[in-house]
């Protein structure tokens, strides 16, 4: 760590890991509700567990991005953070607001929460992933703006690199497109149309800029490869990301009332969306192969390469599986979507945040890398979580294929619930694999507490 | 990548490509909104249906069900439930929840008034009338 103010990242990363634990716990609860339908009912109905699961995911990833921003931008800009104090205040604001929102979901009936938080003033709640009360949404905007102000001022007062510029473009895009969460027309088709401007333009658009910048930053550090080479790769990757991903939004406009031509635009452009992810994998492996130094933090390098591979599999391959309109006609809204969602989010965004944490945390704790012993445990956690996620994805894909066959493709289609009974074995397997994922996560947390011989940074 | 291809060239492709694609996307979004009146069943969007949409949202129905294929995959698709089950069944079903069948998935009891049930059904009727390019493939959703 070159600048003491970078240490604010530690707060953000710690919170991210804590919230990740909550996400996994509620994922396991939902997984059990899939097989034992009345588990924890009526205390925690499925929809509440799901809100907590998905919202915790979004929030911990945002904490991860912010932590990464506070570490990366000062280092790239070669100066202290503009205001470490603002970063600390915003951390507590975001954490308390996030915790209150989750408690609200768990303790108050959702309709009551909507009434108490003034949803009648501007109805924004009750849409997938955007379930947050109005006041929380406003809070997210305020925290993001404060964060962006802080980072932008840091960059403007220092060295401007392509990596920090792309990181900031991604983060500004994140804040900008979140504003569409306040757009909720009564017309359901328009509601759905604009909803994707948050959800899709985040995860298949501007977030990929953040992902690319973080990956490039870590790769420069651990491989020692020339910045010019890495930044050139980064530009090419994000160029393909936006050239395919923006109009690729069309793959969500097949069946929601939008015109038929989206089937062509959406299929063609989103079929090319795997290209930048494939390049990301090639990029990570290529840079590691051409490394000019042996960085002692081997596990950070492992996470970086893993991000490339798993993002390509989850977002690229599993996305492509059901993105063509004639295929999506049968798979839309089935467990195939759930399979893709899980591996894409883990492979791209969870793993890149874990990459960044893995690289920076030892530095913030005063050493270049963790002890060999701690790294070995972290590597075990990498493999356990990653392989568990591969199998969760495979089991959900199995469930999805069977569901499509019985409920959608058949000439004598089964009802939804009858179909669910038929695919139960896959849900059991998924739940068991979820426990392996939890085990991997526990090892991950344990790796922070393992001592051993280390070199000072 | 070869040294003939410079970082500046890569950067220009990024900016040029992103701006071009975003403008094209804006154009398509604009055109979509020109075409929507013929497809989105806006004549079915009565005051009652709008109230129904609010009820749909404030009870987080999307947290279990899909609507036009979007949402959670825990409970049946409801975009075409109006055609599949009809208004009376829908209301009776909602009133009868939860079933308390051991081990089965449970839907909460929301204690809706008759007016609220009518509004919800009106919203589902409106949704059912949207032109979805013949999705879902069959009545089971």
From TrEMBL, chain A:
The domain of life is Bacteria
Please state the protein's primary subcellular location. membrane
UniProt keyword terms in alphabetical order:
Cell membrane, Electron transport, Heme, Iron, Membrane, Metal-binding, Oxidoreductase, Respiratory chain, Transmembrane, Transmembrane helix, Transport
E.C. numbers: 1.7.2.5
| One of the record's GO molecular function terms | nitric oxide reductase activity
Question: InterPro entries recorded for this chain?
Answer: Cyt_c_oxase-like_su1_dom (IPR023616), Cyt_c_oxase-like_su1_sf (IPR036927), Cyt_C_Oxase_1 (IPR000883), Cyt_c_Oxase_su1_BS (IPR023615)
Q: Which GO terms describe its cellular component?
A: plasma membrane
- TM spans, by residue? 12-36, 56-74, 86-108, 134-151, 163-182, 194-220, 232-256, 262-288, 300-321, 341-361, 382-406, 426-450
Q: Which SUPFAM superfamilies match?
A: Cytochrome c oxidase subunit I-like
EC class:
oxidoreductase
| Subcellular locations according to the entry | Cell membrane
What's the protein's topology in the membrane? Multi-pass membrane protein
Q: Where is the Cytochrome oxidase subunit I profile domain?
A: 1-457
Its BP terms in the Gene Ontology are:
aerobic respiration; electron transport coupled proton transport; respiratory electron transport chain
Pathway info: Nitrogen metabolism; nitrate reduction (denitrification); dinitrogen from nitrate: step 3/4
Write out the catalysed reaction: nitrous oxide + 2 Fe(III)-[cytochrome c] + H2O = 2 nitric oxide + 2 Fe(II)-[cytochrome c] + 2 H(+)
| Subunit architecture | Heterodimer of cytochromes b (large subunit) and c (small subunit).
Family (UniProt):
Belongs to the heme-copper respiratory oxidase family.
Q: Outline what the protein does.
A: Component of the anaerobic respiratory chain that transforms nitrate to dinitrogen (denitrification). NorB is the catalytic subunit of the enzyme complex. Shows proton pump activity across the membrane in denitrifying bacterial cells. The mononitrogen reduction is probably coupled to electron transport phosphorylation.
For this entry, the protein name equals Nitric oxide reductase subunit B
What species is this protein from? Fluviicoccus keumensis
> What taxonomic lineage is listed for the species of origin?
Bacteria, Pseudomonadati, Pseudomonadota, Gammaproteobacteria, Moraxellales
Automatic annotation (TrEMBL), chain B:
Any single GO molecular-function term of the entry would be: metal ion binding
The cross-references to Pfam families, in alphabetical order and at most eight, read: Cytochrom_C
Alphabetized, the UniProt keywords read: Electron transport, Heme, Iron, Membrane, Metal-binding, Transmembrane, Transmembrane helix, Transport
Q: Which residues form the Cytochrome c domain?
A: 47-128
Q: Which InterPro entries match?
A: Cyt_c-like_dom, Cyt_c-like_dom_sf, Cytochrome_c550/c551-like
Q: What sections of the protein cross the membrane?
A: 12-30
Protein name, UniProt field: Nitric oxide reductase NorC subunit apoprotein
Organism encoding this protein: Fluviicoccus keumensis
